[in-house]
Design goal:
Layout (H helix, E strand, L loop, with lengths): L6 H16 L3 E5 L4 H7 L8 E9 L3 E3 L14 E6 L7 H11 L3 E6 L4 H9 L7 E5 L12 E5 L6 E4 L4 E3 L5 H12 L3 E2 L1 H19 L19 H16 L2 E7 L3
Parallel strand pairs: 2-5
Antiparallel strand pairs: 1-11, 2-10, 2-11, 3-4, 4-7, 5-6, 7-8, 8-9
Length: 259
């Protein structure tokens, strides 16, 4: 059964709820403000001096309801299945996995529901977060072939399965509530960011994209970013382009309210 709501709706609702759930101790703000509006009105864009960068890629899950479904034996009941794009079409999974070596808080996020009515009820009762699952890219393997790969999980069952030729079971608790508690503890001890972090992140993202591309011919010329310009507006614009276009992530910077 396919999800009845869109990936955009789910991602928007989840991001909103994460930031609300962390208040009042933690402030969360998307890395990418309305840059066009800021450029037109003269509002200054600046680098966050400290914080915890969080990178989320939103996934929708198919709800598997029939006993003959592949991987049914892993659960013996209905379960959710997230498809990872096959490498011959996109190497984005490996890009995200490489990003997680630099930035550990990189996750796939997926709902443990699929009906529009479930989405509506979860949204109005602030349960999008608690009814979601989070999968750390730092723990997932690279995709080394062009075969299908999946993540499966079951509502109310801890852990998840990674399905490939060398399948693996992860016992990690990935429910929204437990994930949020861990995130809050980390955010209360923020990292130093500032210009060095953001300019360095732009450089490293461009390097990862070139290293992991499946189409080297696309990079006879440089990426359309201005690497010589280190002003906040340009760097943030470049980061938005790279992270959204190639990595497909929403980026949120978390920091204690007092900072």
């Amino acid at each position: 059964m396919k999800a009845e709501f869109s990936e955009f709706s789910y991602g928007f609702a989840l991001s909103y709820e994460i930031m609300n759930a962390l208040r009042p101790d933690i402030v969360g703000a998307p890395l990418f403000p309305s840059l066009r509006g800021e450029g037109e009105t003269g509002i200054d864009v600046s680098f966050e001096p400290a914080g915890l960068p969080l990178f989320l890629q939103f996934k929708l899950a198919d709800y598997m309801t029939r006993p003959h479904a592949k991987y049914w034996s892993d659960y013996g009941k209905r379960f959710f299945r997230v498809a990872i794009r096959r490498r011959k079409y996109s190497n984005q999974h490996n890009l995200l996995q490489a990003l997680s070596a630099r930035e550990p808080e990189v996750y796939y996020a997926a709902p443990a529901f699929y009906l529009q009515s479930e989405f509506n009820q979860a949204f109005t009762s602030d349960r999008i977060l608690t009814d979601s699952q989070f999968f750390p890219l730092s723990e997932l393997p690279d995709v080394v072939d062009d075969e299908p790969h999946y993540i499966t999980y079951c509502r109310g069952v801890p852990g998840f399965h990674w399905h490939s030729e060398d399948g693996k079971y992860f016992e990690a608790v990935v429910s929204g509530e437990a994930w949020l508690g861990r995130l809050k503890r980390l955010a209360l001890e923020p990292r130093q960011l500032g210009e060095e972090f953001f300019v360095g992140l732009r450089t490293d993202l461009a390097k990862l994209i070139k290293e992991h591309t499946l189409q080297p011919r696309l990079f006879h010329d440089e990426l359309p970013i201005d690497s010589d310009d280190v002003t906040p507006l340009t760097v943030i614009r470049d980061l938005r382009y790279l992270l959204v276009t190639y990595f497909g992530v929403e980026t949120i910077i978390l920091r204690p309210k007092s900072q």
